[in-house]
Amino acid sequence: MILSSKRGLSGENKIEELELPLIELEAVVKATENFSICNKLGQGGFGIVYKGRLLDGQEIAVKRLSKTSVQGTDEFMNEVTLIARLQHINLVQVLGCCIDADEKLLIYEYLENLSLDSYLFGKTRSSKLNWKERFDITNGVARGLLYLHQDSRFRIIHRDLKASNILLDKNMIPKISDFGMARIFARDETEANTKKVVGTYGYMSPEYAIYGIFSEKSDVFSFGVIVLEIVTGKMNRGFYNLDNENNLLSYAWSHWKEGRELEIVDPVIVDSLSSTFQPQEVLKCIQIGLLCVQERAEHRPTMSSVVRMLGSEAIEIPQPKPPGYCLVRSHYENKPSSSRQCDDDESWT
Fold first, then answer.
1. Which of 56, 117, 136, 160 is catalytic?
2. Which residues in the chain come in under a pLDDT of 50?
3. Other CB atoms within 10 A of residue 29 CB
4. CA pair distance 157, 100, nearest whole angstrom
5. Taking the domain 3-109, which CATH number applies?
6. Rounded distance, CA 328 to CA 325, Å?
7. CB 23 within 8 A of CB 100
8. Most CB atoms closer than 10 Å: which of 8, 34, 208, 299?
C-alpha cells in the first residue's frame, strides 16, 4: 500500500495526529524519478515542486522542503496541519504527505494548467484567456477566499495570495494554493499583529507591510490586486508605464477618476476573434478591484460582499476611495514594528 493510516509524529515539530494520509518515501521517489530536474515545476523559499506519477497512473505535484530551510519547516508543518481540514472546489486538494528522516514532502493533485500568472504575464499564454475565463477565475478565487474567511471549519487568513498561488485545473477552475503562511483566527478575532512580515511585495496591504497588522482585509487587498492584474494583463510588481504611475493601482485609479477605465483592459480580451468581452462586467471588476485595494482596511469590502457584487447586476456598487500605494521598501525600512522576510523580487512561500 502506498497510503498508510494516520500515525503520530515525534521530534521537534510533534503532532499528535495528522488528518492526512502518509505516503511512503519510496513511492514518491519513484513517482518523481528520484526528483529529476526534468520534473521540476517551480521553486520558492520552501524548496522545489516536482511533477510525479504514481504507480496507478495518477499524476501528482510534490512540494519538497529544502533541508536547509528552518523557516520552511515551520511553514510545512503549518500547511500539513491546516490544509487537511479544508475542502472546497476553489482550494487545491492535498493527497497526503511524507515525513521520513530529513525528507518532508507534501503531495497535491497535479493541475495541468499550472498557475494564473503564467497565463496573464507569460508572452505565449495570455491569448488563451478570454474574458469569460478571466471572469470565471475571478469568481472562483473570490468564492475560495470567502470559504477561508467565513465558511470553513476555521477562519483562515491566507497572507500570501497572489497570481502565482492561483492554480488552474484542466477546466480552468482556479484553486488557491500554498497555505504555509496562513493563520487561523478565532471567530471573535478581527486582526493580529506580527513582527515577522512575510509575503510578496505588490500584493501586501499597507497596514501589513508597514506595521505587521493582518486580517481578512489584508487578504481582500491581495485579491483586489489580482483582479486588476486579471483585467489588465499587467503585473503590479515592476509595473511601469509612460505616464509615470509607479504601480498598477495608481494606473487603474487615475484612469477610473478620468472615466477612461476601459483603456486599461488587456488588449487580448478586446481583440480576441471569439471575443466574450462584456464591457459592463469588466467595468464592474475594475470597480470591485479598486474597492478591495483602498488604503484603509475598514473601507474595503468583505469577501461575502465581493461575491454578491460579482454575482448580481442589481446590487449598487460603492464608489472606491484612493488605493494604498505603500508597496515600496522605503515605506517600511527601519520600522521597529516589522521585520521583512522577503525582498522586492522574492516570494517566500
1. 160
2. 1-16, 326-349
3. 17
4. 29
5. 3.30.200.20
6. 8
7. no
8. 208
How far is 286 from 10, CA to CA, in rounded Å? 50
For position 200, what pLDDT does the model report? Answer: 85
What amino acid occupies position 165?
Answer: N
pLDDT of residue 274: 59
Model pLDDT, residue 157: 92
Residue-by-residue DSSP string for 126-163: GGG--HHHHHHHHHHHHHHHHIIIIISSSEEE-S---G
CATH classification number, 116-340, choose in 1.10.510.10, 3.40.630.30, 3.20.20.450, 3.40.50.720:
1.10.510.10
Written in H, E and C, the secondary structure of 16-42 is CCCCCCEECHHHHHHHCCCCCHHHEEE
> Is 63 a known ligand-binding residue?
yes
Cβ–Cβ under 8 Å, residues 177 and 92 = yes
d(CA 294, CA 296): 6
Q: What is the pLDDT of residue 18?
A: 61
Domain limits, the chain:
3-109, 116-340
Predicted local confidence at residue 237, as pLDDT: 80
Strands, E assignment, the chain: 3-4, 22-23, 40-44, 47-53, 59-65, 94-100, 103-109, 155-157, 166-168, 174-176, 183-185, 191-193, 196-197, 213-215, 339-340
CA distance 214 to 36: 38
Residue 44 backbone phi and psi in degrees, to 5? -140, -170
